[in-house]
Design brief:
There is one protein chain. Helix content is 18%, strand content 31%. It has 460 residues and is an alpha/beta fold. The chain folds into two domains: 5-226, Spore Coat Polysaccharide Biosynthesis Protein SpsA, Chain A; 232-440, UDP N-Acetylglucosamine Acyltransferase, domain 1 (3 Solenoid), CATH 2.160.10.10. It has a 23-stranded parallel beta sheet that branches. The protein is elongated and about 110 Å long. Bound molecules: uridine-diphosphate-N-acetylglucosamine and calcium ion. Calcium ion is lined by residues 105, 228, 230.
Length: 460
């Protein structure tokens, strides 16, 4: 049996260098909070039930965000340093096996690297293994001091480094795998840093060596993985890298993405095979898109579920909506929120839908507002149709039965029902139920006055 594994994620700091009122780990890159990425990567090796998150700044918000994962929380009310944060977990943690420590501000770390870290620690005889990398510009990171035996002798923080040490390119990532028994035995031995008064976890390296143990390093070739976010320029860089990784993975999985550097796709999005994504699109949040779809240039899709064989052409917005197979949306359509467009329906240019079911095969091809509506299959909505869903006080629903024909420029004053197969004359204002099979006129009859124009000209 392999030894038990647990994870500790440090997420208590405010992140002063972000110059934000929001805790650093809550800032988003690739469409989700930094700390979510860290947990996504660690959960492939260590279950959330064996993970403790140290929270402090905006503890409530961080806890609310992560609680659904099933991890535990420990609060560090005053942030006295990374070593102090880990020490807070002592009572809750397991004192056997291995502990993986991660910083909540390293969103680019991959699951396979965490697995490699654990495997390296298990294969060797060191007290701990830490992830390092070589940076051309190591400024701001702790530098790795190597021992003669090739192990890690110490980590020197930027502020305490001599100018010789500052030229060291190998840096500490803040990701460690430590023998749990030794961690809890020695965590209390770390003394406050004389300059800052903080308790640095990095000082544990020297303490372990002084106690006769060795500390190993796993040197990563890709320095991108351990980018720690301290300020917003790094946040933008992490966002760029996460999105580039996402489009690359989707392309490897069979999605065509045109000019991928112009496309923004959040980490949680899924897209099926042979779907084509055009330039300058944004596909965000919890969106899933099926196979053989087309997503046109400039479209933004957020938290929506798009089935297969759907065309969303240029410059559409789709928010929290469901679109069934074969439907055609756009160009220039707005599916504002909570809509369900059923199979093979067509929504055309300058049509806005809000809280509306739009039935299978129905069409609204141009210039309409359909809000709080339940529209059956086979319906035709003429250009300029408006559901008047708001009376200034409350919202009301419009129900349109199967195969109804709504003529152009109709004004449908809700609450209202147009029963199945009814027919609304163009330009009508409809305020009362239209029965099945009926034709409804809601406009004044036309009057023609013969000869009126020439009579008026003579007068002037
Ligand atoms: C830390 C490391 C440094 C490493 C770098 C990698 C230490 C002393 N230094 O520096 O060697 O190169 O990360 O990115 O560990 N946190 C708490 N409680 C605290 C302090 C911090 O939870 O009391 C959390 C923060 O929320 C953050 C993480 O720990 O998620 C790292 O803290 P941060 O202040 O960013 O450390 P660095 O100065 O970047
Ligand atoms: Ca940091």
């Amino acid at each position: 049996m392999t030894s038990p594994l647990q994870a500790i994620v440090l997420a208590a700091g405010l992140g002063t260098r972000m110059k934000s009122r929001k805790a650093k780990v809550l800032h988003e890159a690739g469409g989700q909070a930094l700390v979510q990425h860290v947990l996504d990567a660690s959960e492939s090796s260590i279950p959330a039930t064996a993970t403790t998150v140290v929270v402090g700044h905006q503890a409530e918000a961080v806890t609310a965000l992560l609680k659904p994962r099933g991890c535990s929380f420990v609060s560090q009310t005053v942030q006295k340093g990374t070593g102090h944060a880990v020490a807070m977990c002592r009572d809750l943690a397991c004192h056997e096996g291995l502990t993986v420590i991660l910083y909540g501000d390293c969103p680019l770390l991959t699951a396979s690297t965490i697995t490699r870290l654990i495997d390296t620690q298990r294969a060797g005889s060191s007290a701990a293994t830490l992830i390092t990398t070589l940076l051309d510009n190591p400024h701001g990171y702790g530098r790795i001091i190597r021992a003669d035996d090739g192990g890690v002798a110490a980590i020197v923080e930027e502020k305490a480094a001599t100018s010789d040490q500052k030229s060291i390119r190998e840096i500490n990532s803040g990701i460690y795998c430590i023998d749990s028994a030794l961690l809890w035995k020695h965590i209390g031995d770390i003394q406050p840093n004389p300059a800052s008064g903080e308790i640095y976890l990095t000082d544990l390296v020297e303490i372990l060596r002084a106690a006769g143990h060795s500390v190993a390093a796993l040197l990563l070739e890709d320095p991108n993985e351990i980018l720690g976010i301290n300020q917003r320029i790094e946040l933008a860089e992490a966002d760029r890298i996460l999105r580039a990784r996402k489009t690359r993975q989707l392309m490897l999985d069979g999605v065509t993405i045109l000019q991928p550097e112009t496309v923004s796709i959040d980490s949680r999005v899924s897209i099926g095979q042979d779907t084509v994504v055009a330039p300058f699109t944004q596909i965000l949040g919890n969106t899933s898109i099926g196979t053989d779809c087309f997503i046109g240039a400039g479209s933004v899709i957020r938290d929506s579920s798009i089935a297969s064989n759907v065309v969303i052409s240029e410059y559409c917005f789709v928010g929290t909506s469901t679109v069934d197979s074969g439907a055609r949306i756009g160009p220039f359509s707005r599916l504002r929120q909570d809509n369900h467009v059923e199979s093979n329906a067509h929504i055309g240019n300058f049509v806005e839908l809000k809280k509306t079911r739009f039935g299978a095969g129905s069409k609204a091809m141009h210039l309409a507002y359909l809000g709080d509506s339940d529209i059956g299959p086979g319906v035709n909505i003429g250009a300029g149709t408006i559901t008047c869903n708001y009376d200034g006080v409350a919202k009301h629903r419009t129900t349109i039965g199967d195969n109804v024909f709504v003529g152009s420029n109709s004004t449908l004053v809700a609450p209202l029902t147009l029963e199945a197969s009814s027919y609304i004359a163009a330009g009508s204002v409809i305020t009362k139920t239209v029965p099945t099979d009926a034709l409804a006129f809601g406009r004044s009859p036309q009057t023609n006055k013969p000869g009126w124009v020439s009579r008026r000209r003579k007068k002037s």
